[in-house]
Design goal:
Three copies of one chain form a homotrimer.
Chain A: E1 3-9, H1 14-32, E2 40-46, E3 51-53, E4 67-74, H2 78-96, E5 103-110, E6 115-116, H3 123-126
Parallel strand pairs in A: 1-2, 4-5
Antiparallel strand pairs in A: 1-4
Helix pairs in contact in A: 1-2
Chain lengths: 129, 129, 129
């Protein structure tokens, strides 16, 4: 159920995009302990001027490979989030050559009543999940 | 004030898109009891590889008609949300032929201070709303 | 760290877009007291039918200049938010000629564990920020 929204600079091939999404999903499954079918991903590809990703004065360099990810999820522990950040950067480096300095993540949490996966039902409430 | 962000596979006609947004707005008004002018909708149309909507292993089939909706709203009850999911799928089926299996919703809540509808004011705080 | 997602009607020049983002960032820095490098901005440019911004029956006129901003931020006070709304509309009017009636903002809050600015670390937790 985590829903991941990716903002990228346009230019990746379809294959590179798929590799990026696969690598990200593997991090979600591992860090959050969700089933493999718990995959909800949205990608926006931007002209360069549409995506500004600075570094909060941390001295982190960005390139056009930058991956900005907004995660919407039910409550996760601090440990799960830290594990997710680490796994995501590891996976993106290994599978896609994205530098860890180019991965920025922001998480927003919601609750069981806040998800419907189809058929107009809230599956976390009905007992289906 | 709910703000709805729709992610769709590109290909709908402008008329089909309008019908989809109208049908969705009717569900918002009915389920959340907001005025008709409380309409804030954003649509993103994606290349197929930019939108991945699986099913959390629930056995739900998706097609290219899939409608992924992220709702940002002030606090709503569980009953309001469940009503919204049901009405949204009903309306989209009836008005647009979208199957209930193709409708996925995620909600995030915020508060009165979190909205400004124009003129730089927080209208839920000023008493204008 | 606030992350700002802008939804606009397509048609602005690259220069106009940069001016809009600069003016918005100045409002963030001033209202939230964050460093200048705390800049994370995403722009979506839409076909007219993809962006519906009514007025909650407040009697506010919109034009194609409309600027819809979703802010994701760590906790901010009511005063900080009200200051942000006012500064944002002031800055956009002065720098870009956007009318205050065309600026709509929605905020969602999260926490220290919800941000990673690179290298797979949660910099608000590690003490780096």
């Amino acid at each position: 159920m985590p829903l991941l929204r990716f903002d990228l600079v346009a230019g990746r091939s379809p294959e590179a995009l798929t590799a990026l999404l696969d690598a990200s999903h593997a991090a979600v499954v591992d860090a959050f302990g969700v089933p493999g079918g718990d995959r909800y991903q949205v990608v926006h590809q931007h002209a360069p001027g549409e995506l500004v990703v600075h570094d909060t004065d941390l001295g982190i360099e960005r390139t056009d490979d930058v991956v900005l990810v907004q995660v919407t999820s039910r409550r996760r522990t601090r440990e799960q989030k830290e594990r997710f950040y680490a796994l995501l950067t590891d996976n993106l480096k290994r599978s896609c050559g994205v530098q860890p300095s180019d991965v920025v993540v922001s998480v927003v949490e919601n609750s069981d009543a806040d998800w419907s996966f189809g058929h107009g039902r809230a599956q976390f409430l009905t007992g289906e999940l």
